[in-house]
Design a protein that fits this description.
The protein has 123 residues and is mainly beta. The chain is globular.
């Protein structure tokens, strides 16, 4: 099986990749988050599935290890505290304990073993 070679170039500032999710995966645009006139993130929806794509602000620089500057947001109707308890019981530390976000959702966050950040939000 052939593999695609990935560029080693540092991350660059660009808008979240909404067209790929819209055109290829069939998602439709939802909410948009802007700061100072610039797109910071957007929600893509497909049925009951929501993907929130965020734009890195490069506060930690442009040369970072894998996973930095990226966060996956997972919305669920399940009990966030119960999920967080299961995660902790399996040995993963939480980056954020279940708590209320500034916009009123209940959420917790982890960093997976590859360094990717995941936030779980209770709908």
């Amino acid at each position: 099986m052939a593999t695609k070679k990935r560029s080693k170039r540092p991350a660059t500032k660009r808008a979240p990749r909404a067209p790929r999710h819209r055109d290829v995966l069939g998602f439709t645009p939802g909410e948009r988050w802007e700061t100072n006139g610039g797109l910071r993130g957007l929600q893509m929806k497909a049925g009951a599935c929501d993907i929130m794509l965020g734009q890195d602000d490069f506060a930690k620089g442009r040369d970072r290890k894998k996973g930095e500057g990226f966060r996956l947001w997972v919305a669920t109707a399940q009990d966030i505290s119960a999920i967080a308890g299961q995660v902790k019981a399996k040995g993963w530390p939480l980056d954020r304990e279940p708590s209320e976000t500034p916009w009123g959702d209940w959420a917790f966050a982890v960093t997976d073993p590859d360094g990717f950040k995941i936030t779980f939000i209770q709908e």
